[in-house]
Design a protein that fits this description.
The protein is built from 6 helices and 6 strands. The strands form 2 sheets. The protein has a 4-stranded antiparallel sheet with strand order 1-2-6-5, with helices on one face. It is α+β, with helices and mostly antiparallel strands. The N and C termini lie far apart (36 Å).
Length: 169
């Protein structure tokens, strides 16, 4: 899989999601990759360190592809004080990324903001359960067979993360 290539594109009822593959490690970004970013995005990128640079670029490349598919000319996706993407009026954008992938969910903003989250199944980190689940949820997850607990925790966390992104100020 080539770095920064579109590997997933799907129209959903609430927007278009595009996934972009990310290179391993903290490799410097190529000129070709930098050219896919808008000038103001490149300025933001200069202030980022390590793998955050790769994730930022991947998220923007994914969002630009989604914008184009929706008939919009890509506009700079900067970041607010919480790290969330800031975009032009008329669009709602949410970005998520992990080590190997970046996804952007883009929609027209007539229905408000949107949120997306992407999590990987491995490695299992059940020790985070008490930090991300309410007591009643923790009880439900702990009642499941052990082999099902991690996925149940991950689903709950991912839903909460996407909702938070959509509702956060």
């Amino acid at each position: 899989m080539q770095s920064f290539s579109i590997v997933h594109r799907e129209a959903l009822p609430h927007g278009l999601v595009v996934g972009v593959s990310l290179p391993p490690g903290n490799q410097p970004l190529s000129n070709d990759t930098m050219d896919r970013l808008l000038p103001k995005e490149r300025e933001v990128l200069e202030g980022l360190q390590g793998h955050r640079r790769v994730q930022f670029a991947g998220g923007r490349i994914a969002a630009h592809a989604a914008m184009k598919t929706l008939g919009h000319t890509p506009t700079p996706l900067l970041i607010d004080s919480w790290g969330a993407p800031v975009t032009a009026r008329g669009l709602a954008v949410s970005i998520t990324h992990k080590e190997k992938m970046a996804y952007a969910l883009v929609a027209r903003d007539r229905f408000g903001q949107i949120g997306v989250d992407y999590e990987t199944i491995e490695p299992h980190r059940l020790n985070v359960a008490s930090r991300v689940l309410r007591p009643e949820e923790l009880k439900q997850v702990e009642a499941l067979p052990e082999e099902n607990r991690w996925v149940a925790l991950l689903q709950r966390f991912s839903i909460k993360e996407a909702i938070y992104k959509a509702l956060a100020p």
